[in-house]
Amino acid sequence: MKTTKNLNRMKGLSLFILSLAITLISFSFLSKNQFPGIPFRFSEYIIKHLSFPKADLFTWVSDHVTYCCDEWLSFLLLHFVHRVSGVSGMFALFVIISMILFFIIMRYNRNTLANHFVMFLILFIFAAINFSRFFAFEGIIVCCVLFALELMILYSNRSSDTRTIYLIPFLACLWANTYGHFSNVSYLLCVLFLIDAAIAKRTSESKSLIPLGSVTALSFIGICINPYGIKMLAYPYQYNLSSRVNQYLGSGAPDAKELYSLLFGFIPLVLVMMLFIIQRSKVEVIDFLLFGLTAFATFAHERNIIFFLIAAGFYIGKYAVDFSEISLFGKPLRIAFSLKDQWTMVCAVVALIASVCVSFGTGHSTLKEKEFMKQPLSASAIEAIQKENPKRPYTSPILGNALIAGDILVFTDYRSYIYQDYNLSDAENIDFLFSGFHAPKSVESQIKVRSDLVEYYFDKYDFDGFIVYKNNSLYPYLNALPDQYTKQYDDSMVAYFKRN
Questions:
Q1: Going by C-beta distance under 8 Å and a sequence separation of 6 or more, which residues neighbour residue 134?
Q2: Under 8 Å CB-to-CB from 52, ≥6 apart: which residues?
Q3: Is the entire prediction scored with pTM above 0.90?
Q4: Chain segment 95-110, per-residue pLDDT in tens
């Protein structure tokens, strides 16, 4: 018994060290993100006024554009870390969050980890790379931890009655204040386990129906404990069912034509599905339901592959492949892989040392060049626009976060859901009115045909300036009419035009 425990501990420690090495390398090469203008500006308002604004702070369109900041607690955390330790602290925070997730999965699988070492290592490689691909300065980092904790509690409750299940309403409350548009997952997971308990014939699981039902009901109450009250119950569906949200977030369904999506999005889904197919024993109901829910979420938004991999960590151990039992043409394959515990540890430590050296080298140059939180707008562009101080500028949505960080009011930004009832349709019409007409002759001919419509939108909002990407089709239109629109700033990426 002691030998088995020691083996599991040794393998577990080796896996944890290898996971840290993979995470460091992944974040060093892949983790670059835009400066979090909205989170920091919103946090500053809360700290200064000790209250939540009644209308959005960052747009000039209307005083009635409301913004439900369902991530306010996460924003405060990110703001605090940045103020205390700067960009280096932000980097460390994301690595620490990743390792907490790995630890939770390893803790749940502590008794079987040694038997499935290679399989969990593959899972963690996919997870580390996807964490670094989709990390963002928002509440998803806290949401992932809450997701893993709730799954550990629910899965542990299946095997034995545990009072930890009554922590779930508290997790639901945290969810509603750190990543509210995913807070419905807190009770949806309970519903999945309720279905599993209702279908299961085992007495121990059938007995959990009442506690699970109670926890599900209490989760609704937990979600309502937030600055916006009962509205948070409907908010996830209003937010996530918006057809425009993913478009402006810059990530939709995984695309098999893209190498990263194919390797790190589709392959993990296929591998887990294959484990289900080749498994001789029946796949448990809850595992199939969880696979279906997280796979569906991944195809809706590729970033959700993170949740798929976290969930897979709690059930793939049941469906591990024993290669010694696989036969080809009636003959066993006899594939065996063995590595002594001490050599596994040595390999893990060597990998960690190498990853620290690599991440220090790449991370040092990244931080030195301030690329870890890159800006789509240069400092000179921000300074030039601030000097002009437009009161009613047209702004490309993709520039919104950077403009907000520079204390410049926007027309729209990536938060498409708050503009849907106001100006989003008009903004899209302006953006794509000249789509495909970049040649000078084409632009001239299109000006004659569509200038009246363009000017209708410009007059409707009384724009006094235009901040546009140079690859936006609006740029050649403004550039072709210098008498009406004076170019005040121009660089390789953006331009600012003043309306005469």
A1: 140, 251, 302, 303, 305, 306
A2: 46, 69, 72, 227
A3: no
A4: 899 999 999 999 898 8
